[in-house]
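PROTOCOL LOG
Step 1. Enter all chains and additional molecules of the complex.
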Amino acid sequence: MNESSLFSIFLGACLINNFVLAYFLGICPFLGVSAKVETASRMGAAVTFVMLVASACGYAINSLLTALGVPFLRLIAFIVVIASTVQLVEMFVRKTSPALFQALGIFLPLITTNCAILGVVLFQTNRGYGFVEALVFAVGAGVGFTLALVLMAGIREKLELAQAPDLVQGAAVTLIIAGILSLTFMGFAGLAS
Amino acid sequence: MSAWEEPTPPPADEMIKGLWRENPVFVQLLGMCPVLAVSNSAVNALAMGLATTFVLLLSNLLVSSLRHFIPRQVRIATYILIIATFVTVVDYLIQAISLDLHKALGAFISLIVVNCLILGRAEAFASKNGVFRSLLDAMGMGMGFTLGLFALGAVREILGAGSLFGVDLFHDAFEPWVVMILPSGGFFTLAAWLLVFNAIRQRRERLDRAVAGGAAS
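Step 2. Run joint prediction.
Step 3. Record the structure below.
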């Protein structure tokens, strides 16, 4: 394992195959919590942390289940680990920052059903990443997720002041913006192999 | 339809509401991730829709028959475990039926676990209603979801590859829009469908108002 491959894993997860804009993982919080930059960046941080923990635990669980010869329990074990990590983060956020807890609302417990997190764990298992590679992959995915969320929030803050026709208001205009963002991210293809 | 009807609607209504009035894809915007990710061809979209319907049916069945035994505090964890079990079943089932399809759908089969639609129906419907109604509800929602996925997949395949179900439609007369197959095409197609639905709804509201106004005068 050399440094350049680690770097390309990071770039790949963060920019080229951005989890939100190329794999469509974590669309729900992407559409739901992207109204303000402040909330979006905190949400991104929480998701990144859960991803990192879930990725480390997922690696351990996968090795254990493979050694025991019961790979069909993988999915169930993953989801339980993610759910308990989210519970931990929720308790932590509630204690340290009640305001943030209010702002994230229902989307904090919903991180459990955020496909991006299960996606990280599943992709690292499917691609056979080692421990360090898996952690780098998780951080890259988290940074990419935060980036997409913050970009979207920035655009939507401006959009509040713009006059959009009645027809496109709500989800439709958000999806069109997401499509344009996704087109932009295509430009990163070929940065790293 | 009207407000003074009995509180429990007829059983058939549980099924039909998922198809149009509460369509999970176009109206509720639930389970967006698989909708956008695997709708790049009509076959993938149909397969994904059927797999989700299958999980939805079985999980609604189990949740509603166990609804008196599951303690409230741990209900979400229990639902997730039930769903994860059936998703594992579907994952191995698809692998047994068609390895190509399994490759094309990839990790998105496992990701059915975190489809908000399934957990949403378990929590909002199956945990409060009987087995028969829950099955009808799951059937309707699953069919609505499949319909939505297919609507997206068909448009993207026709415009992006000039074919439908792998059958060439236009020969050389049509230059495929590659962007439709790319991820951004998914966002654009869904946005376009939402625009169509918005337009229909606004038109109907206008007509209703016009009719009401005509009756009053």
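Step 4. Note key features.
Residues 159 and 173 of chain A are 9 Å apart (CA to CA).
Chain A touches chain B at residues 21-28, 31, 72, 75-76, 79-80, 83, 110, 112-115, 118-119, 122-123, 126, 166-168, 171-173, 175-176, 178-180, 182-183, 186 (CB under 8 Å).
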